[in-house]
């Protein structure tokens, strides 16, 4: 690794000059229920170099964390800084609760393509991306080969359907695991396939664009895969699929790079790009979590300095590589000679999905957005309407989401 500039990914947040450090406590809410060692090392170094400054870390589970941060801010007692899903940024920005962010052209170019689209609201950035994921298809080769099929990447949706059918008809396993529960990753999984078919949720001008041929083709894929899914798909979240995969009850499912570490070591698994549909190339949803700096604390500039320290090159690299995340930066372009993902076939699957992927949509009412997709997906799984009718209804519902 070469020496890195201090602000390889340092963001300039629009609040003016930095304040001199004083005896102050920063309240840092960390969504996820734990503080990663890579982040803690930066925080320790930050407090050691700022006399009188302490950082009160509050690790809160995802289920309550984001609501807590927003409720504190709305009540006039905001945290100084928070690590949270980028999906929250539109609501926070629209309510004037967080500080906007600007990047230099060099800093923007350091990110992987599409990453900054996940924090952009109305042409302005509102957070510094700090964790990034793309998705891929995991295949249990033992199950596939037991069905008499070759364990190879299905390139197209037709190939995927054929492989899922072969497994279901020749083993006791289901061909594929698909999430259908009323939960956010049901939408995420559908978007993995939609973005692998050149579909979009909103067009370049921010107008609803879900009512499309690409969405109809994607929902038809779900209808075609339904006979080969796990039993009762509306009862399952994506993250529960790993248990079915580990137990040999499904042959395939889509998840992030963390899947490899969650699967039993003895499984002969293959990780491949998400197959592409008839209208597009293989892609993925692009999801980030970001660091946001809140207004109204009186020490915004100190919080900005900490945000920059956490997301600068070496610190960000330590987080990505130790956590096993899709690289958020093009590290080979910012001073790293041999980043962890370079020349690694596993990681190249996740990196290759970036350029053709699409962002998690940024809306103020995320639960309403989630419901649009849940209603559509569950509708086809329960036989409550045709593909055309369900997509038309989803398009109408999306028009009311802000």
- The stretches of 5 or more residues where confidence is low (pLDDT under 50) are 1-11, 15-21
Give the helix/strand class.
alpha/beta
| Rg over alpha carbons | 22 Å
CATH arch. level architecture of the largest domain: 3-Layer(aba) Sandwich
Mean pLDDT: 93
Structure characterization notes:
The protein is of the alpha/beta class. About 35% of the residues lie in helices and about 15% in strands. The strands form four sheets. Strands 2, 3, 4, 8, 12 and 13 form a six-stranded mixed beta sheet that branches. It has a three-stranded antiparallel beta sheet with strand order 10-9-11. A two-stranded antiparallel ribbon has the order 1-5. The longest helix is centred in the C-terminal third of the chain and has 16 residues, at about 365-380. The model is unreliable at about 1-10 and about 15-20 (pLDDT under 50).
Summarize the structure.
It is built from 15 helices and 13 strands. With 402 residues, the protein is an alpha/beta fold.
